[in-house]
Every structure is written in structure tokens, then in C-alpha cells.
Design a protein that fits this description.
The complex is a heterodimer of chains A (198) and B (92). Chain A is mainly beta. Chain A has helices spanning 5-13, 67-74, 117-120; strands at 18-20, 35-46, 50-51, 54-55, 75-79, 85-87, 92-102, 109-115, 124-125, 132-133, 149-157, 163-165, 170-178. Chain A has one domain (5-48, 68-183): Deoxyuridine triphosphatase (dUTPase) (Deoxyuridine 5'-Triphosphate Nucleotidohydrolase, Chain A), CATH 2.70.40.10. Chain A is globular. Chain B has one domain (2-85). Helices cover 0% and strands 53% of the residues of chain B. The chains are: A mainly beta (198), B mainly beta (92).
């Protein structure tokens, strides 16, 4: 069941969900079933990996896949200037929300990040089929002052227009859903010994 | 709730972010990109907050849920009990 604005406020009040800056202070970010989030000023993109000018493919299912090395060698940061960053047609960028979010494990609330229809009509998407924010996201109970983690966006421009991205623009919306029932304890409750003995 | 030890911490895709590696009980390495302030520094090592789903005391293993999907697509994994800190009991 999707939470209404009233239920989202109640979840914020009882700290089943935490968002910083606090959306309760800004009426303009609310709709009947979602909260708008804003784009932060850092973006990143992947440069196409190549060796000696020859393109190489990424092997995420390979057991020796080294993602840290991929980030180190082939990711590039972009800082959005005051005038914005012109995102070209068919470009793909990673971005982050200004808002930091926490979903405590036992709150029984999950969230989904979705696009804004205004941007979608221009051809701009904010995730690539991975909208779910699971319980536990940004939750660090050992530090009561910890604000949470920003939500990462996979931003793609599928249309023919160059779209100017600016820090603070409304980029996506967050929808909250109540989890029905209790999640299972998992895998028949026992470690299945298939690998080396620990 | 618990913390799992990070075997490796390296740069992320923006200044405040880090790429961390945690290992499961089979020795498989999982990569996650998280904000640096999400990690806890304890006795010179970085630790990642995780949820505890279940514990198998006979094998010294704990089923944990990562705070977000890892880069290989994993959400839950069996970790060695010895790689965890501050473990709360698994939910009943």
C-alpha cells in the first residue's frame, strides 16, 4: 500500500523514515503520495574502458570482477556549475539527491524513487529499472546524529533535446510503501555449507 | 543490527563516496558504493552497518542484509560471525 502524504508525515514524526533536510518544512515538495527530491551538484559518468584504443567489455558476473578498479580507472566526476550542466541527448550520468534518507530496518516501510513527469516528457529518466530503496538504507543507529545517505540516480537523456541540469532542481520523487507481513528469517535458517569451511 | 568489516575502502564516484569491499563466508567479495560518513571507523578499520536476519551458531555464520544492493546484485549474504561487530539478536 502506498503511503499518503498524511501517512508519510506520520512516519516522519515517529522516525520510521528520516529525510534531511526535513520535507515537513517545505510544502512545495509534497504531492498526495510522494515527496520531491532535489539534485545535488555532483555528477559522474563512465568513460568507455579501452586498452590500446580497443574497447573492452565489463564482466560484472565474473568472479574476479573488480568493481573498485573499474571506478578508479573509468569513472569521471562532474561538478555542476552555477549555470548548470548541459546533458546531451543519449547521455548517461550518475547523480545524487541533496536529501539524505534513512529507512530503519524494522520500520516496515520501503521506498521507490520515480521520475517527474515534467522531465520524463522531455526524455529524462532518473533510474534504470532499479527504483527500490530497501529497508536499512542509510540506517546507522550507532550514530544518532547521522542524517542518512543520498539516493543515487541513474540519469539518462533518451530524447533529442539537450537538457540543462542544475543543482537544486526537482529531479525525482520518493514514494513510500508499507511492507505487509514479516519478512522471512531466510534460507531455512541455516548456513548452507557449500564453500570452504569457516 | 550489526557492522561488517570492510576488507578494502577506495574512492567512489564522487568526493564524499567510497567503494567498499565486504566478504561473505565463502570468501566472495561484494562491492558497494556508500557515503564515507555511513561507515564507522573502529580500531583502524572501516565497518559497514548491516541488518541481521539470522544466525547459525553451529557454523559461526550470520545471514545479513546489506544496506543497499551490491554491485553484483546481492542483498543478503552469509557472513562469518568473526567479521561482525555489535550484533543484535536476529528477529524472532
Amino acid at each position: 500500500m502506498i503511503l499518503s502524504d498524511r501517512e508519510i508525515r506520520a512516519a516522519l514524526d515517529r522516525e520510521s523514515v528520516k529525510i534531511a533536510p526535513d520535507p515537513r518544512l517545505d510544502a512545495s515538495v509534497w504531492s498526495s503520495t510522494a515527496i520531491d527530491l532535489h539534485l545535488d551538484d555532483e555528477l559522474a559518468y563512465w568513460e568507455s574502458p579501452s586498452v590500446g584504443g580497443v574497447s573492452i567489455s565489463v564482466q560484472p558476473s565474473d568472479k574476479n570482477y573488480n568493481y573498485a578498479e573499474l571506478v578508479e580507472q573509468w569513472s569521471r566526476p562532474i561538478k555542476i556549475a552555477d549555470e548548470g550542466f548541459p546533458m546531451k541527448p543519449h547521455a548517461f550520468l550518475l547523480g545524487w539527491t541533496i536529501e539524505k534518507v534513512q529507512l530503519p530496518h524494522r520500520s516496515r516501510i520501503a521506498a521507490r524513487v520515480e521520475g517527474k513527469s515534467s522531465l520524463a516528457r522531455l526524455g529524462l529518466g532518473v533510474h534504470v529499472t532499479a527504483p527500490t530503496v530497501h529497508a536499512g538504507f542509510g540506517y546507522k543507529p550507532s550514530n544518532k546524529t547521522f542524517l542518512g545517505s543520498p539516493i543515487q540516480l541513474e540519469i539518462w537523456n533518451f530524447g533529442p533535446l539537450t537538457i540543462n541540469l542544475k543543482k537544486g532542481m526537482r529531479i525525482c520523487q520518493l514514494i513510500f510503501e508499507e511492507v505487509h507481513g514479516t519478512p522471512e528469517k531466510g534460507y531455512e535458517g541455516q548456513f548452507s555449507m557449500q564453500g570452504p569451511t569457516i | 543490527m550489526a557492522l561488517i568489516r570492510c576488507d578494502q575502502v577506495s574512492k567512489g564516484m564522487r568526493s564524499s563516496e567510497r567503494t567498499v569491499v565486504v566478504s561473505d563466508a565463502y570468501g566472495r567479495r561484494e562491492y558497494l558504493r556508500v557515503e564515507e560518513d555511513f561507515l564507522t571507523l573502529h580500531e583502524g578499520k572501516y565497518w559497514l552497518p548491516v541488518g541481521v536476519i539470522n544466525e547459525d551458531k553451529n557454523h559461526g555464520a550470520v545471514l545479513i542484509e546489506l544496506p543497499q544492493e551490491s554491485e553484483s546484485g546481492t542483498n543478503r549474504l552469509w557472513a562469518k560471525l568473526s567479521d561482525l561487530l555489535e550484533m543484535d539478536p536476529a528477529p524472532v
